[in-house]
Amino acid sequence: MTHIAPTYVDSFIGGILIGLSSLILLLLNGRIAGISGIFASLFGRADRQLWVSLAFVIGLILGPLLFRAVLGDWPLVRIPQSFPLIIVAGLLVGFGTRLGSGCTSGHGVTGLARLSPRSMAAVAVFMIVAVLTVYLKRAGGWI
């Protein structure tokens, strides 16, 4: 079985779909498409928003299945790190989204589009930390 390597066109189309889904969620439900907030709302009280959140998360899960159905194979994903490191990284990301009152999808996609000062500050911090992390990893020979 061969895997389909992503191209810039795939990334461009994916970005358009993310922006479109964020816009639709904001226009039809008045909600920001922040994945961490949407996921957290699944554990709240049962109301209309719960069903919207559930549909959104199910859509995230079905995305790769749709990719495979349309293109006949899975997208190529390489994660060379160990599974325990991935778990720790995921927990740190979850902690960071709570600390930052949102994640990159909420602040970076919807927040920036709405010209939110809080989102601009959050995205600036995300980018600075990302650049520093890559620099330190390369300087330390970890990449």
Task: Explain this structure.
It is a single chain. This protein has six helices and no strands. The chain is an all-alpha fold and 143 residues long. The chain has one domain. α5 packs across α6 (117-139). The longest helix has 24 residues, at 48-71. The protein starts with 7 loop residues before the first helix and ends with a helix.
Keywords:
single chain; mainly alpha; 143 residues
Rg calculated over all Cα atoms: 17 Å
Number of domains: 1
The rounded distance between the terminal residues' Cα atoms is 28 Å
Tally of helical runs: 6
Residue share in helix? over 70%
In short:
The protein is 72% helix and 0% strand. It has 143 residues and is an all-alpha fold.
